[in-house]
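Hi, here's the filled form for the chain we discussed.

Project: internal
Contact: R.S.
Residues: 184
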Amino acid sequence: VDEKCPDMQQDWAIPPFFPSGEQRLFSLLPQKIQPPYRWLLIGCKRSGTAYHTDPGGTAAWNALFSGQKRWLIRPPSVKEPHGVYRYRNRSRRYLPSDPAKYFNEHHPFIQEGPDRPLSFTQFPGEIVFIPSHWWHMVINLTDDTVALTQNWANSENWECVAPEIARDEELREPMLEALVAHNK
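And the returned structure, exactly as it came back:
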């Protein structure tokens, strides 16, 4: 969003209760190696995202401008939600990747109890917060769904992000150097 549509930044602001600018840990890195962190999401009815946890141990917010989104979220204590399995064990992708298929084939059969996700509908003007390592999936309920989402890392979720950075060969060294320089 920032690079491809810089003029759009005039039309919105990061909600004040979420980190922005230098409050974001990855902003310490040179721009060219910062991981992607903000997306404009435009979708039609029955599109969405499969169950996943956000990359790098990050937390996220999602602001809905138009349409409606149905969310399922689960705490990190759930290893993999019912009916979801890791694709080829090495990827961060999970199957089934089609949210509509999951809602039709798996969700109706999950009984009350610890495996039942928190389920709610997001409406225009509402912002959803997803903590680090929480499972979530979304299905768009309308044809005109437009949202902005942003992931972040800061001191509040450092214990979730640090192990992920340590495993990332491309980010580990630059992040360590950036943190040392920032704390001088």
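Let me know if anything looks off before we file it.
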